[in-house]
Design brief:
320 residues; alpha+beta; 2 domains; 6-stranded antiparallel beta sheet; 21% strand
Length: 320
């Protein structure tokens, strides 16, 4: 998480055709949950880069322009498939709830995993099972969508929003389905290069910067890690939250595109909040958005912020 750029910009008319590009720091890796060990490669964690959103201050409405991470399930394993491979891997459907394993991060369709004690490095765990309703075989895609929805209730609440954990349900193969099998194995897999060293139930998951914020919250300053302490808006504060939303898209669009998209999205929300009377004489827009690493681990969160044009704010300028 990086800190915002300096506040106090007195310019009332930045040139939107030739904006001064903000410096793009790489950001700091947020403090990782207890039990999450870094791998050998560059760690991927949900992070936010924060940079000034350059807009023409002739009116936020000028920028107003009138966002879905797919779940990669395991493919089904028919009964005639081998129950193990020479390397010792087994179908995830043969594991019990609470058992841990190591799966291929980038091959969600491979149902074979390697069993692992939960106190040893691993990247997956069986979190539950469920049974789909009896019906005609709907096809693989439709079946996996139904399984993903059915598994939502099996995912522990405290990790539902952890971007590094992906839901991967194991579904019956077509032959199994036609033989009356309706069982689904619900699993969670770490999709970064980190490893778990504890059961999911024992993970200490801390909120990431921006997760707990809502419209109108005032922040004395932006914290690179952990929660963002909210202060009374009557006290001096650097930032106020305009909006928090999830940006759509699968492929990382690049930093320049994120600047443009977050500016447009935040401007659209500003128009809805302030309608025709934004206090542009008092504030400048800023946004916090995912870094590339954060994007690739599922984070799409954008925090639209405002800062005082001539220094810290001492009152709320965003309606709740």
């Amino acid at each position: 998480m990086t800190t915002p750029p300096p506040t106090g910009n007195d310019s009332d008319d930045p040139d939107p055709a030739a904006p001064q590009a903000p410096v793009w720091p790489t950001g700091q890796l947020p403090s990782q949950p207890s039990g999450l060990a870094s791998g050998s490669g560059p760690a991927r964690a949900r992070r936010l880069a924060i940079a000034a959103v350059v807009t023409g201050l002739c009116g936020l409405a000028v920028l107003a322009i009138a966002f879905a991470v797919g779940i990669g399930p395991f493919s089904g394993v028919d009964e005639e498939s081998a129950l193990s491979r020479p390397d010792g891997s087994v179908p995830v459907s043969t594991l019990k709830i609470g058992e841990c394993f190591t799966a291929k991060i980038h091959d969600a369709a491979d149902p074979f995993v390697s069993r692992s004690p939960c106190d040893h490095p691993h990247n997956g765990e069986v979190v539950g099972t469920t049974t789909l309703p009896d019906a005609r075989y709907p096809g693989y895609q439709k079946l996996t969508e139904q399984a993903a929805k059915a598994c939502e209730g099996r995912i522990p609440a405290k990790v539902k929003d952890v971007g590094e954990l992906e839901s991967r349900p194991d579904v019956p193969g077509e032959k199994e389905w036609k033989d009356g099998k309706r069982g689904v194995t619900c699993t969670l897999v770490v999709i970064s290069n980190r490893s778990l060293t504890t059961p999911i139930a024992a993970l200490n998951v801390s909120p990431l910067p921006g997760e707990e914020l809502k419209q109108g919250d005032c922040l004395e300053r932006w914290h690179e890690e952990g929660t963002q302490p909210v202060v009374d808006c009557a006290k001096k504060h650097e930032y106020q939250v305009l909006a928090v939303y999830e940006m759509r898209g699968k492929e990382y669009p690049g930093q320049k595109a994120l600047v443009t998209r977050s500016a447009e999205d935040c401007a659209e929300r500003a128009v809805k909040i302030w309608r025709a009377d934004p206090p542009l004489h008092l504030i400048s827009p800023t946004a916090a958005f995912p870094t590339k690493d954060g994007w690739e681990t599922g984070d799409r969160r954008v925090v639209c912020l405002i800062t005082g044009k001539k220094g810290p704010l001492t009152r709320s300028v965003v309606p709740r």
